[in-house]
Amino acid sequence: MAYDRTDLEIIRILQENARTPVMNIAREVNISRPTVNSRIERLQKGGIIKKFTTIIDRDAISKNILLILRMKVDKKKIGALKEMNEIIEIYETLGEKNLTCKAIVRDMERLQEFIKRISDLGAGEIDSTIVLNTIKEEYESTVGPEIGITLNCEYCGSEVKGSHFKFKIHNKEHYFCCPVCLKSYKKKMSHRP
Ligand SMILES: [Zn+2]
Question: How many CA atoms lie within 13 A of 2 on its CB side?
């Protein structure tokens, strides 16, 4: 399935707020309401939109301890780790320690109990670090021409392939096929009254 610039704009709006009324999306993207609906449906069917979810601020519920763990685990035991509520992310990685996880525990006491539980499961060489401060946490994966969305250069109109050149104006990203087009576009914009 091919996706285009309009799909990209719809995705961006929904990533910002999944509850944006269809009417508002239609107005912003400049297409009809039924078209917005059918495009959203197509994005869901195509697996681009996995689900609409709710982001919770865990710290608003209670102060938690966020942990990064690296450990050596037999692949057969990964299923059991997946079942643990404290573990929110699991990555299989290269190296002696084959698993990296992100976990949340409520306090130091529970932290020790939690480490003991994963070690009882057979995890070895557990190396845990407490996160002091989250500097960047991106819930939305950025979408762009990388995921098979066909975009045309906004200066010359030819298809943007491979490496592209992005330029942000009024919070909207514009794409160009080459640095020359980007430069020409910027020049054109700067001459506008
Ligand atoms: Zn171009």
Answer: 4
Strand ranges in 73-136 using DSSP code E only, listed in sequence order: 87-92, 99-105, 124-130
Distance 150 CA to ligand 1 centre (A): 14
Can you tell me the mean pLDDT for 16-37?
Answer: 94
Residues 124-180: tens digit of each pLDDT: 999 999 998 888 877 666 666 555 667 778 888 888 876 667 777 666 777 888 888
Query: CATH second-level architecture of 58-130?
Result: 2-Layer Sandwich (3.30)
- Cβ atoms of 40 and 10 closer than 8 Å: yes
Q: What's the 172 CA to ligand 1 centre distance in angstroms?
A: 18
CA distance 23 to 127: 50
Domain 1-55 has what CATH class?
mainly alpha
In angstroms, the Cα distances linking 137 to 32, 140, 141 are 34, 9, 11
Q: Which CATH architecture has domain 151-193?
A: Roll (2.30)
Give distance in angstroms: CA of 152 to centre of ligand 1: 8
How far is the centre of ligand 1, averaged over its atoms, from the C-alpha of 161 (Å)? 10
Domain with CATH 3.30.70.920 in the chain: 58-130
Which part of the chain is CATH 1.10.10.10?
1-55
